[in-house]
Each structure stands twice: as C-alpha cells, then as structure tokens.
Design a protein that fits this description.
heterodimer, A: about 120 residues, mainly alpha, elongated, B: about 240 residues, alpha+beta, Alpha-Beta Plaits, three-stranded antiparallel β-sheet, about 50% helix
Chain lengths: ~120, ~240
C-alpha cells in the first residue's frame, strides 16, 4: 500500500534532477522553505493516517497554503529587514520533529498492541 | 477507510521529491550559479582573448619592423647621402624607443608591503600596496635624473606610454602589470640612484615597502612593441 507514494517520491526526484532551468540565487532561500513545508506535510499526512484523522482536503490545502505562506512571509521579512525566514525554518523544524515523534509513538504502540494480541491468541 | 489517503499523499510525495532533488542539485553547484561570478568569468575571458590578440599584433609589428630595418640597412646604389640618412634614421629609432638598448644604469624593484598588511589586517589595505602614483613619481624622478631609456616590467616607456590605474591593476603601454615592479633605467647610475633615494624610494622605505636598488654596468631595455600611429599630428610647415 505504500508503493504508490514511494513511486511518487521517486518520480518527483527524477523530475527534479531533470529540470535544467536556473532559479536566481536570491530565491533559493524560498525554495528551501518550500522543501521544508512539503516535508512537514508528508510527515503530517503519515501521522494523520496513523491516528485515523486523515482528511485529504486538509492535507492538500495545508501543504500548499503552508509552503506559499512561508515563502511569502520570508519574502516580506526580507523586504522589512527582519529575518522571518528563520522563524519559518524554526516553525517547520519543530513541527517536523513533533510529527516524527508521534509517528514513532504510534508505530511503537501498534507494534506492542499486535504482540499482545498475538500472545493472547496463543494462550 | 478505503485508503482515501493514497492519492493525496502521492501527490505531496511527488512535489516534495521534486523540490528536494532540485534544491540538492542547486546547492551542489552553488558556486557556479552566482550570476555575478559568471559574468566575471565572461569578462575575464574577453580580456584574455583581447590580450592574446594584442600579443599577436605586437609580434606582427615586430616582424614588420625587423623587415623594415633590414631593408633600410641595405646598401643602396647612392652611397654618400643615403648612408648619412640611414645613420640619422638609426639614431632617431633609438630615440623613439624602437630598438632594444643597453648601457649603464639602475634597476629598482618595489613590491607590495605584504608583511605590513599581515601584521595589521584591520588596516586599510590601500596603505600597503604600490599605487600607480608611486611608479609615476619614480619614473618622473628618473627622467629628471637624465635617464635615457626606462622600462617597467619589460614595458619600454616611450613618449606615448601611459602609467595608469585601472581598478586594482596598473597599465603600462596598455599591458597589465603585477607586483613586484621592476623599473630599469639607463643613465648615470650614481646620479639616478641619488635622485630616487632622496625622493620616492625614501617615501616607500619609510612606509616599510620592500624596495631594492641595484646599480648595474649593463642594463638591457627592450624595444617598444606597440604601434605608433600619427593620424592627426602633422609637422608644421616651415616658412
């Protein structure tokens, strides 16, 4: 069941490495925020699946809105001379770790649950 | 729960992979993506090409000049008068700086004060490099001292030679020069060294620039390699 997302990831990587157009250096910063936002969304989605709270609309809108807003905020910060870029990086970083932690938590719980149930069946 | 999440997660995975690999590629050749340095390398290449062309043209000029000299030195059927004219021409060529010359003289070497800059990295680096004014002053002093021929790093100074500052290089005869600068001059060694020792060299020494002066029995100064064209200047007609 995880084959399709992994395939998607590989396809995305291939497309990305095949792209040849140049982004001006000034905008590389915003690109990196977009990467963080998408990574955050992927992990958030996995977490939601684990917790049975998944909603595709929430995931998709959250992804695009987060990436765009973060880039916009960073841009605004650049205009104003305030390094809002770091705020976005920080926010996404914290969320990344939280998502990872809860995914790990959930996986561990599931694993233990299964084990216990298996033992119960055996007895 | 019929795996409604499969398609959205796949979409996001595609987008994430795209950004991710693209950014990694971008960071990989980060040094080359700087548009300014790209522009600079283009300019440097243009300069190199042009300098090569100047070199070729100078070689051509030299060849033609050699041919010309050979022709001028041929024995002509009319002896007396033409011989005299040939001698006169030779003399004028020496004066114009179109022939290599040798004789007694001095060789001055000056270089940037690298140690001084290392010792005071916070200081203005301009205080520790040789500027074109230093060379200009030295040359002027040598001329006052009666130098008959002067060359800077092998560039013969003639009447049209410039000593000019362009950014952080010095141009002489439109050729870029880099430190250390070796200024050779033919003339009375004692006289020349006295005048520069009491002038510009003294100034440079007091600021701890590495400076050396050698009095030589034979200094060889090359010929001027560039072109000499008079388009506007005409001799005034004598009444």
């Amino acid at each position: 069941m995880w084959i399709l997302p992994v395939m998607g990831l590989i396809i995305g990587v291939l497309i990305g490495s095949a792209l040849t157009f140049q982004v001006p250096v000034a905008y590389v910063k915003y690109m990196s925020i977009a990467v963080l936002a998408s990574l955050d969304s992927v992990l958030g989605g996995i977490r939601a699946i684990m917790e049975d709270l998944f909603d595709s609309t929430v995931l998709l809108t959250g992804f695009f809105a987060n990436a765009l807003l973060a880039a916009l905020l960073a841009y605004l910060g650049d205009r104003l001379g305030v390094d809002l870029y770091y705020a976005a990086v920080f926010a996404f970083g914290v969320r990344l770790f939280q998502n990872l932690a809860s995914i790990r938590h959930k996986l561990l719980l599931n694993y233990r649950h299964k084990k216990q149930r298996n033992r119960g069946e055996q007895q | 729960m019929a795996r409604t999440w499969l398609v959205p997660v796949t979409i996001i995975c595609i987008v994430f992979g795209l950004f991710f690999s693209y950014l990694i590629k971008l960071q990989g050749n980060n040094t080359n993506t700087n548009p300014l340095s790209q522009k600079n390398t283009n300019l440097v290449m243009i300069i190199r090409d042009l300098e090569e062309e100047i070199n070729n043209q100078e070689n051509m000029i030299e060849k033609i000049r050699n041919d010309l000299t050979a022709l001028q030195n041929q024995n002509l059927p009319f002896r007396g008068k033409s011989k005299e004219l040939q001698e006169q021409l030779k003399e004028e060529r020496i004066r114009a700086g179109l022939t290599p010359v040798a004789g007694k003289g001095i060789v001055i070497t000056i270089a940037d004060n690298k140690e001084g800059l290392k010792a005071n990295p916070q200081d203005d680096p301009n205080k520790y490099i040789i500027h074109y004014e230093n060379i200009l002053n030295l040359v002027s002093e040598l001329k006052v001292g009666g130098a008959e021929a002067i060359a800077i790093n092998g560039q013969r100074l003639i009447t049209t030679s410039e000593i000019r500052c362009v950014g952080n290089v010095i141009l002489v005869n439109t050729t870029r020069l880099a430190p250390p600068f070796e200024i050779s001059a033919i003339g009375s060694p004692r006289h020349l060294s006295e005048i520069v020792n009491n002038g510009q060299l003294d100034v440079l020494r007091s600021s701890n620039f590495p400076v050396s002066l050698k009095e030589m029995d034979e200094v060889i100064i090359p010929a001027y390699k560039g072109g000499l064209q008079f388009v506007y200047a005409r001799p005034v007609k004598e009444e």
